[in-house]
Recover the amino acids of this structure.
C-alpha cells in the first residue's frame, strides 16, 4: 500500500517563542524551524510499515513556502521515498491544508494517510480529521498503535479514559500521538541520499482548492506570567501555608 | 444567536465537558440546543433536559450511535447544524470533541476553532497556541463557527432547567469504522480533568512502584485525582490517561501538587492555570518552582510520606 504523510514546517520545539511588538504574530525571523515532532512520528510509522513489507511507498507532502523543501528533505532522510511540495506563500489554515491534501490524495490514491495529531505551533489538531471528512474516509486520531490488515487497519487510540481500538476500512486517515513510536535520527548517509530523492513542486493555485483564510488572528499576546511563590523550609510549614494562607485544604 | 452543543456521553450520563460546553454556549446569548445521539440514551437525554440554560434536547436513537464514532456522528451533526440556523456548534475539547469537531467543520465547509478559552461575542474568541505560551484573539465572520472549548475555562452548567426533548431522525450508518475494544482505567478517585485537587508525579519518582506507593496514600488523604508528567507516562509508571500537559489533559484544580516533576514547558501548559501549585523537587533549579506558589526543595522519598502523615493527622 502507498502511504501519504503530510508534514509541517514549524518553529523548533526548543525555541522559546516571542510575540512581535505589533502583536501580529510570533517572531519567526532568524528562528530555528523544524519538522513538526508529531509529523516525525507519522513518517517513522510509515517507514516502519514499509520496512515490515506492509507499505510499498511512502510519500511525504508539505504545503507552504519553498522553505518547506527543507522539511521534506528531513522526511526523505528518515526514509520517505519521494516528496511533494504544494507551494504557496499564502497563509494556510487547517481547512485550506486539508483541501490541498485532498487534491494530492486524489492524484496519489494512497491507501492510508498518516499525519501528526497536531502541529506544535497553532496546536489546532484539525487537519487529519478535516482531510478524512473531505475524502469521506474513516479516521483514527491519537494513534498509539497501527496494525494494517486485509482492506482494514486496526488502530489503538489514546482517549481520555484510557485506550480504544477501532477498525477502519481502507483508505483511511490516522493521526499519530506521542507514544506511537520513537522516531529515528537521520544518519549522515541517509541525509546525503535524501538530497537525490525526487521532490516535486506543485503550485497550490493549480489545484483549484479554495484556500482563503476563514479566520483572522488579530492579536497575539503572552499570557500573564504566573509569579513564582515562596520556598518553604519543611513539610510543617507547607501544611501550615496550605491550611491557613492558601486555605485549599 | 442559537447554538448547538454536541453531547459527549455514555448513554446514561453526560460527560462533564458537555456541561462546560453549555456554559460556553450561553456566551452567545441565544437558545441552546443539545444534540444527544446514542442508543438507549434516555439517561443522558434526561440529564441534558435538566441543565440550566438548555432550550431543547435533540434526541437521536440508533444502533450506529451506540459508540461515539466520528464518521457517523459528523454527518448527523452536519445535517442538524446546517438545517437548524445555528451560529455555532460547540463541543468540549476532550478526546471525543477534538476527534469530532474538525470533521463536522470540514463537512460544513467552515473553519474550526480549537481549545477556546474565552468568548467575548459571537465570532470573537481567544485560544492558546504554542503550548499556551501565546494567546491569540480569533475573529470569525463565518455564518457558523465550530468550536471546541477548553473545559477548565468554563464552569459546568448547573441543574434547574426543564428543556423539552425532541426526537430527530438518525443519519446514515456509513459503516466505515467500528470499535474493537477499550481498556479504560478504573478508579474510585475523582476524574482528573475536573478534580478539585490533583496529585501529579514525574520522573523523579524513579519507577511505577514508587509512584503508587508514595502518591496514592497522599491522593487518598486529599481526596485528589492522580496525574503524571509525560516523562512518567513514557517511562511506563502509569497509563497514558494520567498525562497532564499540552498533549495530555488540561487541568486547573484548586490545588496541584507536583512531585518529582521538573516542569517542562509542555507540562506547564497543562496545569499552570491551577489556583495553587505546590512543587516538591530536590533540584532547586527545576523550572516547576517558577510557577509554584509553594516550593519545597527536598527529597520526595522522605517528604511525601511525611506530608501524607501530617495531613491525615490534621
Amino acid at each position: 500500500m502507498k502511504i501519504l504523510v503530510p508534514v509541517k514546517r514549524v518553529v523548533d520545539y526548543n525555541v522559546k517563542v516571542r510575540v512581535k511588538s505589533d502583536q501580529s504574530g510570533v517572531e519567526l525571523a532568524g528562528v530555528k524551524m523544524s519538522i513538526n515532532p508529531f509529523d516525525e512520528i507519522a513518517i517513522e510509522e510509515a517507514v516502519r510499515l514499509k520496512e515490515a513489507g506492509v507499505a510499498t511507498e511512502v510519500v511525504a507532502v508539505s504545503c507552504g513556502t519553498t522553505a518547506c523543501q527543507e522539511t521534506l528533505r528531513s522526511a526523505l532522510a528518515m526514509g520517505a521515498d519521494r516528496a511533494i511540495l504544494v507551494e504557496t506563500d499564502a497563509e494556510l489554515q487547517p481547512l485550506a491544508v486539508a483541501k490541498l491534501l485532498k487534491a494530492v490524495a486524489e492524484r496519489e490514491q494512497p491507501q492510508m494517510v498518516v499525519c501528526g495529531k497536531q502541529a506544535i505551533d497553532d496546536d489546532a489538531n484539525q487537519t487529519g480529521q478535516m482531510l478524512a471528512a473531505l475524502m469521506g474516509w474513516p479516521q483514527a486520531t491519537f494513534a498509539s498503535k497501527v496494525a494494517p490488515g486485509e482492506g482494514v487497519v486496526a488502530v489503538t487510540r489514546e482517549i481520555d479514559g484510557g485506550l480504544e481500538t477501532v477498525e477502519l476500512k481502507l483508505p483511511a486517515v490516522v493521526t499519530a500521538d506521542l507514544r506511537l513510536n520513537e522516531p529515528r535520527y537521520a544518519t549522515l548517509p541517509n541525509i546525503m541520499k535524501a538530497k537525490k530523492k525526487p521532490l516535486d513542486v506543485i503550485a497550490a493555485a493549480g489545484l483549484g482548492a479554495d484556500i482563503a483564510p476563514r479566520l483572522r488572528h488579530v492579536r497575539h499576546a503572552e499570557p500573564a506570567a504566573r509569579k513564582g511563590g515562596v520556598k518553604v523550609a519543611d513539610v510543617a510549614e507547607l501544611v501550615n501555608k496550605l491550611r491557613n494562607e492558601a486555605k485549599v485544604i | 444567536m442559537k447554538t448547538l452543543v454536541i453531547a459527549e456521553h455514555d448513554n446514561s450520563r453526560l460527560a462533564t465537558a458537555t456541561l462546560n460546553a453549555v456554559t460556553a454556549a450561553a456566551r452567545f446569548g441565544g437558545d441552546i440546543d443539545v444534540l444527544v445521539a446514542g442508543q438507549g440514551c434516555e439517561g443522558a437525554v434526561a440529564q441534558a433536559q435538566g441543565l440550566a440554560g438548555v432550550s431543547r434536547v435533540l434526541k437521536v436513537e440508533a444502533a450506529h450511535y451506540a459508540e461515539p464514532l466520528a464518521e457517523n456522528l459528523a454527518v448527523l451533526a452536519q445535517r442538524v447544524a446546517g438545517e437548524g440556523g445555528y451560529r455555532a456548534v460547540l463541543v468540549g475539547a476532550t478526546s471525543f470533541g477534538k476527534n469530532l469537531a474538525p470533521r463536522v467543520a470540514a463537512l460544513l465547509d467552515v473553519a474550526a476553532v480549537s481549545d477556546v478559552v474565552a468568548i467575548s461575542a459571537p465570532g470573537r474568541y481567544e485560544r492558546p497556541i504554542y503550548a499556551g505560551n501565546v494567546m491569540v484573539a480569533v475573529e470569525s465572520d463565518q455564518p457558523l463557527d465550530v468550536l471546541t472549548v477548553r473545559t477548565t475555562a468554563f464552569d459546568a452548567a448547573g441543574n434547574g432547567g426543564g428543556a423539552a426533548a425532541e426526537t430527530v431522525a438518525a443519519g446514515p450508518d456509513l459503516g466505515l469504522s467500528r470499535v474493537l475494544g477499550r481498556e479504560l482505567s478504573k478508579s474510585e478517585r475523582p476524574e482528573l480533568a475536573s478534580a478539585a485537587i490533583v496529585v501529579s508525579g514525574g520522573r523523579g519518582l524513579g519507577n511505577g512502584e514508587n509512584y503508587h506507593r508514595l502518591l496514592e496514600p497522599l491522593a487518598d488523604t486529599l481526596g485528589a485525582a492522580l496525574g503524571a508528567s509525560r516523562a512518567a507516562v513514557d517511562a511506563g509508571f502509569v497509563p497514558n490517561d494520567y498525562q497532564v500537559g499540552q498533549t495530555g489533559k488540561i487541568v486547573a484544580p484548586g490545588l496541584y501538587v507536583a512531585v518529582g516533576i521538573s516542569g517542562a514547558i509542555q507540562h506547564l501548559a497543562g496545569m499552570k492555570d491551577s489556583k495553587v501549585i505546590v512543587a516538591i523537587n530536590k533540584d532547586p533549579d527545576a523550572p516547576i518552582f517558577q510557577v509554584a506558589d509553594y516550593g519545597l526543595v527536598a527529597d520526595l522519598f522522605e517528604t511525601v510520606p511525611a506530608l501524607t502523615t501530617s495531613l491525615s493527622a490534621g
Observations:
- Chain B touches chain A through 85 residues (CB under 8 Å).
- The longest strand of chain B covers residues 177-184.
- The mean pLDDT of chain B is 96.
- The radius of gyration of chain B is 21 Å.
